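Entry 12.
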Amino acid sequence: MSSTRLLILGTLIIKQPRHGYDIRRELEMWSADRWANIAYGSIYSALNTMAKDGLIEAVSNDQKDKQAARTEYMITGPGKEEFERLLREYWWTWKPMIDPLQVALTFMDRLPRDELLGALRYRAQWLRSTLEALKYMDAGKMSHPSAPRHIAENLRLSAAHMETELHWIEEAIGKVERGELP
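Predicted 3D structure (tokens):
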């Protein structure tokens, strides 16, 4: 939740008041689901929790015509303090990423050789395709006039992780083919 909390508080610092849909749109534009493990549906629950915790406050509840009411939120003093605390924690503390591939790698000797090679080749092809698509998808998103330039660094870091994994997989395929693994 703290990644989601940091992202929501940060979007409110950039511009407020904002309603949940606007926050969601902003995070989608940043492709936050790729690099922050955020589920867009969790934004509304997080907004409710943060309002209860006093980090944000509802400032309006607009209802136009027959549309559903949209609650707009602003960050509070404690919300700004929480944003700064989380921001500094994330900059100064290294936390390992949990990768299910590393868990599966522990038991690679339990798959038949052909299936293991098939899985590695499939994953390598998926990474190549995703890296190629990122060039075009993210270029389009980053050309939007309101896109913060530093968001591109999140996308570059994600691509670097994928390139590193692809390099490892290509080496692992060779080792399996030569009988050096598993």
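Annotation: Strands lie at 18-19, 56-62, 70-75. The chain has a mean pLDDT of 91.
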